């Protein structure tokens, strides 16, 4: 390992923000980028929602519905650290995209609305993080508004998520009298995020703190802070890193409270890029040779260039511009001539990237989700998941002459992770599967705009899809032979069983005990 690589790895923090819509993810992102110097003015991220941006010009759907359906990465520096923030789509119809993105982060910020507590989507995303033991830093947002008692919020996190909490800061006041954040661990405070450095104070009762609070609430709020200091669990680094405990920060992204506390926490406590499990061995982030995997493909980021960008997370070594990597799935070399870094609005050519960094690699369909790149080693990263679709449809094409073109287009869409594609064994037309209905709208729009293929979707006679496998040799073949009309192949030629409903699936699962019916499949 060279010092340069070790040093670069130690500085990196790669994370995502998980939250329920409206909790303040966009506002927080904006502030992080602003304090990190990545954007000039707050408001640029928000603008994405409201007005047309180059990046998403092509996507009328996004424009019409005012939702961001794409995942992107933003890099910024703060203090000694380099942060890679992987953005995830807010809409739950694109949940599979979010899950794949979470495979590429080392930690997450969970944003909670101080008035609403844990909401359904936060819970769901938290569960995905827990599956991977991703350490979570909690930001309780909107303290400038009418909000719940901090103890109640901490209790709700502990109860609903079965996650220990350690409040590091405490709000000084709430609602209209919210005037700053108090660090319980080291007795410092910030009046707002304008304070680059926190100020040392003499406890919550001191004039510097208590004196800021309205007289009628002072006693109650000071007591609360003292109790917070006294009674709350102390921060435990190991428990945090193992995903059992979350440090909690209070603030207001909109009014500039608590964001610096939060970003410093991520820098100080957040893990540097982790070691990554591959099929043959564990790859340490500080190894010299480059390894990386593709977790996201995005097409048409720039309408002038019909390129596809594969987002790769570097897992070890140094990814250098111009290097030749091996695409392990095919065994072929791929030249990384123009890897790119992304900022809020712009992208620049990346000369070198280290573990934890995410770079975009322009390509014309060579790279697929789940692909591993190495400097020659035969090694595959596992764990970019494929989820059994919730909705299955047949694609109906008006013009039968274009069937071949449709097949190619669907194959490409499937490689990008827009939809899943299943080819029935009995030769009937292809079936597409999605987890949310909006994905079908995206598919339809893209087939029309990019491939001039107007299509419609028909209900398939199936509604359930499971990957089949078995420990017993020959069992899968026997099952396939017995169910020929209900078997299809996915993009990797792996067999899936299509059932009309859950009942039908359970019936078969009862009869074929040696066959496994999986709802999740790792790529590769
Ligand atoms: P997202 O859907 O999670 O990305 O949430 P947004 O960042 O778009 O915020 C949703 C709404 O809450 C917007 O109207 C924001 O201005 C508002 N908001 C975000 N943070 C705060 C905050 O700290 N205080 C208050 N009062 N409003 C906030």
Automatic annotation (TrEMBL):
Highest taxon listed in the record's lineage: Bacteria
Keywords from the named record: Cytoplasm, GTP-binding, Nucleotide-binding, Protein biosynthesis
Major localisation: cytoplasm
Presence of keyword Hydrolase: no
Pfam families listed in its UniProt record: EF-G_D2, GTP_EFTU, RF3_C
CDD domains per UniProt: RF3
Annotated ranges, domain Tr-type G: 10-274
Gene3D superfamilies recorded: P-loop containing nucleotide triphosphate hydrolases (3.40.50.300), Peptide chain release factor 3, domain III (3.30.70.3280), Translation factors (2.40.30.10)
Keyword field contains Cell inner membrane: no
Localisation per UniProt entry: Cytoplasm
Family: Belongs to the TRAFAC class translation factor GTPase superfamily. Classic translation factor GTPase family. PrfC subfamily.
Function: Increases the formation of ribosomal termination complexes and stimulates activities of RF-1 and RF-2. It binds guanine nucleotides and has strong preference for UGA stop codons. It may interact directly with the ribosome. The stimulation of RF-1 and RF-2 is significantly reduced by GTP and GDP, but not by GMP.
UniProt cross-references to HAMAP family, sorted A to Z: Rel_fac_3
PANTHER family for this protein: PEPTIDE CHAIN RELEASE FACTOR RF3 (PTHR43556)
Name of the featured protein: Peptide chain release factor 3
Species of the source: Nitratireductor kimnyeongensis
